[in-house]
Amino acid sequence: MKLITIAGPPSSGKTAVILKLIEAMDMPSGSIGVVKFDCLTSFDNLSYEAAQVPVQMGFSGKTCPDHYFVSNIEDAVQWGIESGFKMLITESAGLCNRCSPYINSIASICVIDNLSGVNTPRKIGPMLKFADIVVVTKGDIVSQAEREVFAFNIKQVNLTARIIFINGITGQGTFMLAKYLKNALEIDTIQDMRLRFTTPAAVCSYCTGETRIGEPHQRGMLKKMEFKK
Amino acid sequence: MNNTPNFMTLLNNENLATVIERFPIASDFLANYRLSDIATDRLLQSALEGIEEDILEEFGLEPYDLLLNFSVFLETFSETRADIDGVTSITINGGINKLKQPENISLTISAGEIISIVGPTGSGKSRLLNDIECLAQRDTPTQRQIMINGHELDDTQRFEMDGKLVAQLSQNMNFVMDLTVREFLEMHAKCRLSPNVNDVVEKCFQCANDLAGEKFAADTKVTQLSGGQSRALMIADTAYMSDSPIVLIDEIENAGIDRREAIVLLAKREKIIFVSTHDPLLALNADKRIIIKNGGIHKIIETSAEEQQSLVLIEKLDNELLKLRNHLRSGDLITKELINL
Question: What is the pTM for the complete model shown?
């Protein structure tokens, strides 16, 4: 089975891109499954079910979404293999710009949209920096110049990624993405493989349910802001 | 010709201020790693000693990685992009239509040529444009093949060119950046690493104003331009700043911009131009037109001398309509006497 990890900020068009990608892969129905990792809730399962794509949803709830991803990804792979998929796609919402659910040797795609502001690529961080492919959506409604500046700013952060413009409504551009993914690594487990980047670190009192504000309640690993006089 | 310096050596021997002066984009690199405040009067290595320890760690970097990334960054952005320069022609070799009938065509289009694409909605225009964009090699549903300068392309070349080959322009596109016209053009020029930013910005601005019905100032916000002015700026920008050798124009409306002049301008800049349109004025202005039917290329019509003559009449009609529009705009009554057919 091939494993593809897809991440991107909320509402960047990940689900639309995945659905169009599945169409473009032109594989028998039911041979591609999706695992959606999100925080609290999501309605994307409805879109996948409507397209008859087998889907599992996982919600990180009160834990860090990245830690949640890495703690469950091997189980997801085993679910995919047991279900007889030829390809498993994981979709994760990058929520803190520090998220980067990518694994060495596993095809990693970041989805961002042209409406998010031209400098956004420079702020996204590991989720963009460590992707093999950066998919840019919503390009059909901004000017060519803005698309070019956006692509340039992506390149500043990730010099080697392929940048593919995809229209999530018409599917324009998915052909090349599908073509690229046909060469993705075949796996039967990802046990002992490594993440491309460490997950956000935090074991502080707030991680364990503290809600009170102020120095006396802050314990563990904390980062304090410096206010210049 | 290769006059790119070894950037590793450069960073090890010149202070940051000199590096930034020679390669202004270096300051973007520093900003991306939150290092805008770094001391620039010394070498990178010693400048890094003065920064907060956490910063590099948060980006998952050791000082040596930063040096390495910095030199690769500078190298990448000082390379000339040869891959899409020198596209002088594209060839469309026919595949099959939705009824699996062969298209039996081979059409070569050279830089400076204008081709219109006509056909009912849903007839397969977008499929043709998609094939061009991904440089189909008989592997898309249409089985068409697109060749560049008469050559087939392998997958590596296709990936290299993907996204850079075709510039697009349609009525649905808007500016979303909160910048003035001048700032916008400067930003785009900077991305192209143009050596003469001011010259190219000035040229673009002049040209956009020539195309626009109503003039605009360089300090107008791009988001405040009218539809026609936006279109004019987009076309001027594509003509002077976009590297893409192919321009795809999708139904631009005839309001506040001289469309024919705009398309001729792009052709003069040695672009290959596709205009998807239902407007006879634009369609007949093209050298050839591709007729799309049943998901395939039905035929290719070369604009004949007779059609060229009809074009004169159509232009007259169009001008009459334009005149009426102007009368409406200035608050006049539209009388039968105003209409000369």
Answer: 0.85
Nearest to B261, CA basis, from B324, B269, A89: B269
CATH class of the domain at B111-125+153-305: alpha beta
Q: What is the separation, in whole angstroms, between the first and last Cα of chain B?
A: 61
- Residues in chain A whose beta carbon is closer than 8 A to a beta carbon of chain B? 114-115, 117-118, 122, 125-126, 140-146, 148-149, 151-152, 155-157, 159, 162-165, 170, 172-173, 175-176, 179-180, 197-198, 223
For the CA atoms of B166, B169, B175, B181, the dihedral, rounded to the nearest 10 degrees, stands at: 90
| Domains in chain A: ranges and CATH | 2-198 (3.40.50.300)
Looking at the partner chain, which of A122, A141, A170 has a beta carbon nearest the beta carbon of B126?
Answer: A170
d(CA B39, CA B91) in angstroms, rounded, equals 54
Helix axes B197-211, B227-241, angle to 10 degrees: 140
Hey, what amino acid is at B26? Answer: A
Angle, vertex CA B307, rays to CA B306 and CA B312, nearest 5: 100
Q: Does B140 contact A175 at a Cβ distance shorter than 8 Å?
A: yes
Separation CA B152–CA A204 (nearest Å): 59
Residue A21 reports pLDDT greater than 90: yes
- Which positions of chain B have pLDDT values less than 50? 1-2
Amino acid at position A28, single letter? P
